[in-house]
Amino acid sequence: MSAETSTSRRFRDAATETPLARYILVAIAVGFMALILLMPLLLVFIEAFRQGIPAFFEALGDVDALAAIRLTLLVAAIAVPLNLVFGVSAAWAIAKFEFKGKTFLTTLIDLPFSISPVISGLVYVLLFGANSYLGPILKGWGIEILFAVPGIVLATVFVTFPFVARELIPLMQEQGTGDEEAALSLGANGWQTFWYVTLPNIKWGLLYGVLLCNARAMGEFGAVSVVSGHIRGLTETMPLHVEVLYNEYNFVAAFAVSTLLALLALVTLALKTILEIRYGEQLSASRKH
Length: 289
Fold this sequence. Notes:
Layout: H1 3-14, H2 19-48, H3 53-60, H4 63-96, H5 102-109, H6 111-114, H7 117-128, H8 134-140, H9 149-160, H10 162-175, H11 178-185, H12 190-219, H13 222-228, H14 238-247, H15 251-288
């Protein structure tokens, strides 16, 4: 028996668990998921319907709840397209070109992952607050940033802008520049190359990044809490409204609004699974290519 065969057999034996060990590992994983994820999610729906369906819909139909829902949708509708444009541009530049500062740009994209959302909100307070340099100037022009929708949008954009770029950069690097160079050699211009070559190749990764970005934008709490001012009916998003209702001991209403965020999480999870399958197929195809 050769040394290579003996070594490969030892690795195979070491990686082969007994049926009992596999059952224990699966039981630990399932038990942990049930305790940490499924039980809290189930309790949210139980508490939301504790006083019946009419109380549930009454809570969702409240004026402040509807205002929070509208604001959350508005912020996501602004932040996600902005991050879409930034993410595609940054990924295209990093994956397709060589330039000075490329590593620094990649590091900046990861910055929101390493900074607490509360800290990012405080940065905007320092930039646009009453005692800052920019705040009084903008206020003199009639532009309100803090305790208004623009501040909420800025904070949301900051905490969510890595998602699209971070999904596209490795995918576009894996695909290389061969398809784009072929299109250019055949007479296509830059926009035609992007629209007909680059975009179809990254569409599933792009949808995956947009999905994660949207889920984070609608569920963001820390940064938005700092810059919003908690003005009821005006600057309260759904997560902030849930906190206010819970602090007021209005548990049914708090959990009723929470179910919307929980449903968003479930829909995101389902779509994420579908996109991961298509995304995986796309990566496999690009490697074969």
